[in-house]
Amino acid sequence: VTTGRPRRCGWLDLPLLRHACRVNGVDWLALTKIDVLRGHPQIRVATGYQVGEDKLEEMPTDTDLLQKIEPVYEMLPGWEEDLINCRTFEDLPANAQQYVQFIEEQLGLPIQLIGVGPQRQQIITRGDWQ
Fold first, then answer.
1. What is the pLDDT of residue 89?
2. Under 8 Å CB-to-CB from 128, ≥6 apart: which residues?
3. How many Cβ atoms sit within 10 Å of the Cβ of residue 106?
4. What Cα–Cα distance (Å) separates residue 126 from each residue in 24, 30, 35, 69?
5. What pLDDT is recorded for position 65?
6. Residue 69: predicted pLDDT
7. Spatial separation of the C-alpha atoms in residues 109 and 86, rounded to whole Å
8. Are 96 and 114 in contact (CB under 8 A)?
9. What are 53-90's pLDDT values in tens digits?
10. H/E/C letters for each residue in the chain?
11. Paired strand residues for 46
12. Residue 51 CB: number of other CB atoms within 10 A?
């Protein structure tokens, strides 16, 4: 950040992202900053929400219910390898590939751009994106 303050980032929330994709008519995704996940032994991904005894697979639209939900996380294996020189999907460590594929499967959408560093050339393109 330009202010010098440390960033606080949350884990990926798939039900929220699925809702946003559906509402906005998204055909494919760009996954940026995957390089910052390096070094985490496990990566959490919210796959649903818990409300009391009930598990929700989709984001609730009831604002009262939204205040009561707790994310349910699935743990994916992390990776130690630096991604900065990866230029193809196959260059990514196996666990990073698994992370991308998990998101695609959960959302039913392809990830066609993957950011692996801060530079313009540090973007992996996939599929027929041009």
1. 96
2. 112
3. 16
4. 22, 10, 17, 35
5. 86
6. 92
7. 22
8. no
9. 989 988 888 888 888 999 999 999 999 999 999 999 99
10. CCCCCCCCCCCEEHHHHHHHHHHHCCCCEEECCHHHHCCCCEEEEEEEEEECCEEECCCCCCHHHHCCCEEEEEEEECCCCCCCCCCCHHHCCHHHHHHHHHHHHHHCCCEEEEECCCCCCCEEECCCCC
11. 13, 73
12. 13
Residue 1 confidence (pLDDT) = 52
What are residue 7's phi and psi, to 5 degrees? -85, 150
Tell me if 104 sits within 8 A of 111, measured CB to CB: yes
What separation in angstroms does the CA of 124 have from each of 19, 87, 99? 25, 5, 15
Which two tokens mark 30? 């760009």
CA pair distance 97, 38, nearest whole angstrom: 13
Both structure tokens of 70: 């707790």
- Amino acid (one-letter) located at 74: E
